[in-house]
């Protein structure tokens, strides 16, 4: 992360030579060092008067401060290509065109609901839609889900390519192999390696021969749950988790791309919390009971993502009878839904039924 | 006044002390040359020192003039408010979010804090003819959640509402004012600052001083959210407090000086009690932060409905609300807009 606050004071124009030397002697190296302390502390540490200290703080603040852009300017930089389609049309329309760039999107749901499928479907479309510009996708596979899914990915690419050729006959010629080679897979083991990957990611993004439009992390819960499991680690976990999301958001914003992360669910031991934080709630049909589950990683994480999509199982209208006659463990006639639990651009939480088709996910 | 109270470099204060100057009056009538001789410094440094003593030291601090409660009441009744567009909530707030105050907006993820903030950045622009503040908005976005498309949709809805209000009242002046407004105009008056860490947030708020001096019409500053960057990277607890204090102090100064409203969005945290093995949801940033704001609005879910609860600032109460295509609205009358 190359943040403006990490700029060295020596590079800041408007600080006199004499003062530069005093700063260095007093141990102030970067802009961050100045911004974190009060003016009184500056007077004490640098032996300057109030006006000089204020002036210094102002100069450094001006160097680091964000530059304003009006909402109108922000709107005009959005275009059709600022969204990644999921393939579930009503969902894409609801979100304004798909998963927006510059956002961290979370897909959360019980095991086997299709989170990895969802990621692959979005990745495949991103590759096919961005084929003419050689757009790339980075896939960080912490749960090693991709082993079993590479064939699935090529199937999706194949079908989507055919669809594209059919719709626009003049389209460029691009093979499935070419597209698959534009999906870069990183497979870190454990939290530390994962964090290391993220730090390297920015260099990789800058070095990539063409623009990366999507970063997938499947899943973020796996390394976190494996690494922080005792109660004493709770505050460290929170802090590291937020720091890691801040990094993802920084990448999404500065490189104009979408970050899609998956998260797991767990049983809720605490009734009160589920009632209160309803975007945390996940319902799922397990056996014949509707289970109450909550998203992993807690409230701090839930605050940190921009968009939360909850993948849920709902008992269908024919479910009970069918399940009992077939006698299988899970509900055959269940329907699957994506609920938009959090999205700053949408009205009240909407639900969208979907099913897994050969070309990815589709509306139903 | 003691010499040590002067805003001088500590070394200078030390020198004055050693030379026997302990109160400012000791320096009365002394010439630069005399002082230079006493302190063993160059006459130019000495005259500079005297100049700074005169400018600061002889300025005795004066208490601000007192006002009566009646005057304050009058001011409050007649000052502009920023409507939330949820009628029941505006009633609780006495017309809307007041200017010159710090308001905290705290709530669980996905409950609509950001959407309400975006909407406030639009309703602050309601023209005076409609009893609005007719101001611009500054939006400091720490989470990347400001959605320009959403702001655009809300702006269109607000304009429709203004047209309808003017039409109902058969007020030609209002109709003309509403007709002259475009959604793009409203969006041009929202100034967004995207910040990526706590230091950038502090720097941006400090630099806002100059921005606000240039743009006198800014009537709302939103920080969405204060919590995010203070929940990582600043591990030292005292340092975090000092930084938060610095932030609120600056914002509170702007609120008074430019008579604008400051809205600070806060996150919630799950407090776990290991002894009883229970957990509860509380505003983040701790107890001392809770004192920083004059008004606290808590947004949460109650039986599947969104509820805004006024916890501090006025008589406590709560109002249900919903988030529609138009924006944040009352539940009873979903089409009702910004009430003027």
From TrEMBL, chain A:
One annotated Gene Ontology cellular component of this protein: replication fork
Any matching Pfam family: Rad51
Record has Glycosyltransferase as a keyword: no
Domain RecA family profile: 80-265
Organism: Prymnesium parvum
Listed SUPFAM superfamilies: P-loop containing nucleoside triphosphate hydrolases
One GO molecular-function entry: ATP binding
Signal peptide interval: none
Keywords in alphabetical order: ATP-binding, Nucleotide-binding
Full protein name: RecA family profile 1 domain-containing protein
One GO term (biological process): double-strand break repair via homologous recombination
InterPro entries on file: DNA_recomb/repair_RecA-like (IPR016467), P-loop_NTPase (IPR027417), Rad51_C (IPR013632), RAD51B (IPR030548), RecA_ATP-bd (IPR020588)
PROSITE patterns recorded: RECA_2 (PS50162)
From TrEMBL, chain B:
Domain of life from the UniProt record: Eukaryota
UniProt keywords, alphabetically: ATP-binding, DNA damage, DNA repair, Nucleotide-binding, Nucleus
Xref: InterPro entries: DNA_recomb/repair_RecA-like, HR_Repair_Mediator, P-loop_NTPase, Rad51_C, RecA_ATP-bd
Gene Ontology biological process terms in this record: meiotic DNA recombinase assembly; reciprocal meiotic recombination
Subcellular location: Nucleus
Domain RecA family profile: 78-268
GO cellular component terms attached to this protein's record: Rad51B-Rad51C-Rad51D-XRCC2 complex; Rad51C-XRCC3 complex; replication fork
CDD domains reported in the protein's UniProt record: Rad51C
GO MF terms held by the record: ATP binding; ATP-dependent DNA damage sensor activity; crossover junction DNA endonuclease activity; four-way junction DNA binding
A UniProt-annotated Pfam family: Rad51
SUPFAM superfamilies on file: P-loop containing nucleoside triphosphate hydrolases
Protein name, as recorded: DNA repair protein RAD51 homolog 3
Organism: Prymnesium parvum (Toxic golden alga)
Lineage: Eukaryota, Haptista, Haptophyta, Prymnesiophyceae, Prymnesiales
